[in-house]
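Summarise what follows for lecture notes:
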Amino acid sequence: MSPKLTPNDASISRKANLRVRANCLADLCDTVTIENPPQPIRLVITEDGGTIWTHDTSRTAQVLVNDYPLAGLRIKEPCVLLVQPRQFSELLRAKFKDEAVEIETDSSEPIRIKSKSGASVVYHAADEDDTATVPDHWILPVDSAGNRVFPMFDNEPATSKILIDIEEVKRGLLDMKIANAPYVEFNFADAGSFAHSGHWGAKTNQSKTPITADIDGEDCVVCFTENLADIISRFKGSTQVEIQRHKKGGLFVISAADGPDVTIVATEAVRES
């Protein structure tokens, strides 16, 4: 579900005055840290929580977090913080841990953070022009049936929708480790689903594991690269994810089925000819 305000909304104030648990804000920043070093982001905070839409440098992966719950949040009006997520998270954890902190800033001003214990930090905000923000028109719409709609494929809905436990997805990590391969294929079929790694080479180790998943639509194959572990780590607080793809494309959408509203859009692994 899209938030009331998106990170692209120019009407959101750059003046911030809020109170929040430091570790919760750090958790949100960690959720969108998808490369090292990560690009700066726009962090929108409203009374409903924190929203961040960002992408990697190559624009092959997007992380979309909407209304992430922030414990102890008190805010006067919606605002934007411009931060480098890993740096900001590390600062919050090291200095304040799970303390409640007050955060204040204004347009073109540094971010000032302080706690009741008297600890304080002055953090110089990122340049807004340097932030990696997913534009509104990149967001794949959702139809009335809950299917992602793909504008690049004549606005057709996803042809496959899979509901799967995160623990089942983790089986693919073991297959990659055993096969010593940088990819894993998840074959989703009503007749039986499985994860398979190492099978693209003629003389390579292979590992295959049956998995359990609920499939809505056509049988399909979803290919993850070695970033699978990093993708799974975005879904802390969730037990299941939903994967959607279109048979015409080489990308997938994976969203939390429970827990915080987190979605990742990424390109699939490609077999070299």
Q: What stands out?
A: The chain has two domains: 16-134, 140-267. The longest helix spans residues 166-179. The mean pLDDT is 95.
